[in-house]
Amino acid sequence: MSCARQMLDSHPRTSGLDVGVLAAPIDALTDCAQACTADVDADLDEQDLAEMVTSIRLCLDCVDVCTAAAGVVSRQAEYDANVARPLLEACVAICKSRGDECERRARHFQHCLVCAEACRRCEQACQEFLDVVK
Questions:
Q1: Boundaries of domain holding 32
Q2: Tens-place pLDDT, residues 110-123
Q3: Residue 18: which CATH number?
Q4: Cα–Cα separations (whole angstroms), residue 72 to 38, 86, 124
Q5: Residue of 55, 5, 64, 7 lying closest to 32 (CA atoms)
Q6: Within a 13 Å sphere around the CA of 131, how many CA atoms are in the beta-carbon half?
Q7: Cα(57)–Cα(50) distance, rounded to whole angstroms?
Q8: Closest CA to 99 of 71, 125, 131
Q9: For 54-104, what is each residue's pLDDT tens digit?
């Protein structure tokens, strides 16, 4: 059981959303933010740093958006779809862009492959959550 699931299960108030449905995007968001943070670090050690600038910027954007969304979605006491939905939609968009960029570089850099996979999982988890909570 994930930490997000444990925290949601132990919360004294519920949002009315299924805890399992809510935990999935939180886990994916935090995993994606971690993968992108580590990918930036790996990008900075590559030989041709100038070639990695777009990758680094997209990673940093992805970390910021996913971290903000994870924080908002984790606060179930006063869950507000009007706030969460645009953040999750932004996550879907940045994770798609980041995943596309990482996939382009994945045959040359293993860390980009790992990051691409995390971004794709996050993109999918956020979209699935959006589809459920309409």
A1: 3-133
A2: 999 999 999 999 99
A3: 1.20.1270.360
A4: 23, 11, 18
A5: 64
A6: 7
A7: 12
A8: 125
A9: 999 999 999 999 999 999 988 876 678 889 999 999 999 999 999 999 999
